[in-house]
């Protein structure tokens, strides 16, 4: 098989100069380095490190501008554009952005990376020599991961989502620790490539982390109470929910467990802001001091 394969960075020799640029060789085959892709003047016999790819006409070509990734080499790359039904484009340092196809992205387009998100990618080369971005698999992420110390318990860490499943979200922290956010530990599902801050709720024996996007109870109670009170205000001061409502009704309306709902409602009642009556909750009328 020829060494001049798309998706690789190679050190080649200048065979000769042409009106279009330079013909480079590995001693057996030649490839064009267009003058626009040369970062300096080259002399015959000089070595040049180039990235090999297929041009728009399907011909083998090269550039002295080296990409941040290549086949078998992974790096974090930034998403620059999303094309519904097609995939997302990432910046790899070349004049042309690289497509990550929809087959390598979540089934739900709402979970696709947005502009500015990050993907840990390599280059995938098809049989025809076309180049695409390929996000790292779980095995690759485990190879670069570090073992998390037990002292991280209850700490807040920032990381990047590298895998999304129905059961939960996988991320790698800025420190290099792998973490998992179970679906019950998030109110909204993060996108692939999204940057999130999460709280460590368990450091596992294998050095990975269980994380949560739900605030601590005391913080969450205040936030939930504010949301419930705002909902009451938007409904004119009354809602058909109280602390004996069915858990599924509470979950559907507020995306809260019944326990969290009761804590938040209890806080509002303790602050004398609301009262309950026959299955309903009402805002107290502050101006009169009455119900």
From TrEMBL:
Pfam families: CvfB_1st, CvfB_2nd, S1_2, WHD_CvfB. It comes from the Bacteria. SUPFAM superfamilies: Nucleic acid-binding proteins. Residues 154-214 form the S1 motif domain. InterPro entries: CvfB_fam (IPR014464), CvfB_S1_2nd (IPR048588), CvfB_S1_3rd (IPR048587), CvfB_S1_st (IPR039566), CvfB_WH (IPR040764), NA-bd_OB-fold (IPR012340), S1_domain (IPR003029), WH-like_DNA-bd_sf (IPR036388). PANTHER family: CONSERVED VIRULENCE FACTOR B. Belongs to the CvfB family. This is S1 RNA-binding domain-containing protein. It comes from Bacillus songklensis. The lineage of its organism: Bacteria, Bacillati, Bacillota, Bacilli, Bacillales.
């Amino acid at each position: 098989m020829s060494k001049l394969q798309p998706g690789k960075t190679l050190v080649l020799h200048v065979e000769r100069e042409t009106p279009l640029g330079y013909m480079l060789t590995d001693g057996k085959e030649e490839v064009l380095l267009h003058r626009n892709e040369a970062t300096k003047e080259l002399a015959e016999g000089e070595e040049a490190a180039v990235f090999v790819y297929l041009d728009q006409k399907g011909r083998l070509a090269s550039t002295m501008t080296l990409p941040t990734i290549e086949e078998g080499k992974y790096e974090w790359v930034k998403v620059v554009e999303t094309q519904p039904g097609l995939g997302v484009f990432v910046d790899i340092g070349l004049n042309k952005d690289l497509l990550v196809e929809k087959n390598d992205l979540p089934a739900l387009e709402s979970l696709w990376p947005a502009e500015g998100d990050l993907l840990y990618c390599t280059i995938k080369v098809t049989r025809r020599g076309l180049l695409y971005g390929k996000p790292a698999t779980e095995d690759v992420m485990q190879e670069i991961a570090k073992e998390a110390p037990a002292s991280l318990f209850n700490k807040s860490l920032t990381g990047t989502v590298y895998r999304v499943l129905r059961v939960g979200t996988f991320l790698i922290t800025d420190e290099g620790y792998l973490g998992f956010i179970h679906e019950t530990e998030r109110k909204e599902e993060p996108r692939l490539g999204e940057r999130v801050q999460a709280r460590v709720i368990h450091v596992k024996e294998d050095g990975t982390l269980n994380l949560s996007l739900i605030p601590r109870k005391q913080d969450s109670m205040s936030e939930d109470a504010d949301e419930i009170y705002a909902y009451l205000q938007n409904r004119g001061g009354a809602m058909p929910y109280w602390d004996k409502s069915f858990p599924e009704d509470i979950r559907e309306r507020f995306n809260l467990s019944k326990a969290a709902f009761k804590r938040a409602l209890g806080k509002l009642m303790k602050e004398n802001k609301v009262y309950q009556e026959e299955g309903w909750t009402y805002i107290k009328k502050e101006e009169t001091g009455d119900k």
